[in-house]
């Protein structure tokens, strides 16, 4: 797919996709964490530190693995599927490599560290790329299927 044929997905659509994904993750892991740690978990969540190994696995490892697996097999997370978007290699328009996708996920941290500036970059970039996309050589486009 030539670059001129790609229709890039903008900032607000991607925010919506991220919100959908966040709610889905919360609906999956929230009850499990509550079941394991009880009501006190809700009172202390977000105060720093982990409640235990399962907390780390469910809040950090599981989401990372799930996102990358969705990207590998569907080129999108459920949120991106809902908005009709997919991730492609920025040069070829073909599916990205697994290495690109892992790099893209790690690039989220680079994008978030300076007050989410790398994510906000999507709103101003001509190809609607965040820093994580630029680092991985990917773009998010409208899925024409």
Would you summarize the structure shown here?
By secondary structure, this protein is mainly alpha-helical. 59% of the residues lie in helices and 7% in strands.
Keywords summarizing the entry:
2 strands, two-stranded antiparallel sheet, elongated
Provide an overview of this structure.
The chain is mainly α and 145 residues long. It has one domain. 59% of the residues lie in helices and 7% in strands. The protein contains 7 helices and 2 strands; from the N terminus they run H-H-H-H-E-H-H-H-E. A two-stranded antiparallel ribbon has the order 1-2. Helix 1 packs antiparallel against helix 3. It is elongated, with a radius of gyration of 16 Å. The two termini are 13 Å apart. The model has no long low-confidence stretch (mean pLDDT 92).
Structural class: mainly alpha
- Rg is 16 Å
Largest sheet: 2 strands, antiparallel
Provide mean pLDDT, rounded: 92
Oligomer: single chain
- Total number of beta strands: 2
Q: What is the ordering of alpha helices and beta strands? A: HHHHEHHHE
**What shape does the CA trace take?**
elongated
The low-confidence parts are none
Percent in strands: 5-15%
- Number of domains in the coordinates? 1
Count of DSSP-assigned helices: 7
Proportion of residues in helical segments:
55-70%
Distance between the termini: 13 Å
Strand order of the largest sheet: 1-2
């Amino acid at each position: 797919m030539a670059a001129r044929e790609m229709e890039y997905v903008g900032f607000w659509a991607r925010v919506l996709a991220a919100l959908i994904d966040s709610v889905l993750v919360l609906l999956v892991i929230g009850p499990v964490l509550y079941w394991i740690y009880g009501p006190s978990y809700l009172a202390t969540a977000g105060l720093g530190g982990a409640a235990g190994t399962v907390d780390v696995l469910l809040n950090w490892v599981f989401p990372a693995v799930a996102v990358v697996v969705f990207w590998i097999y569907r080129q999108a997370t459920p949120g991106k599927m809902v908005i009709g978007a997919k991730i492609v290699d920025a040069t070829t328009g073909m599916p990205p490599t697994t290495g690109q996708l892992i790099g893209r996920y790690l690039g989220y941290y680079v994008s978030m560290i300076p007050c989410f500036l790398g994510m906000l970059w999507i709103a101003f970039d001509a190809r609607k790329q965040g820093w994580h996309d630029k680092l991985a050589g990917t773009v998010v486009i409208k899925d024409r299927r």
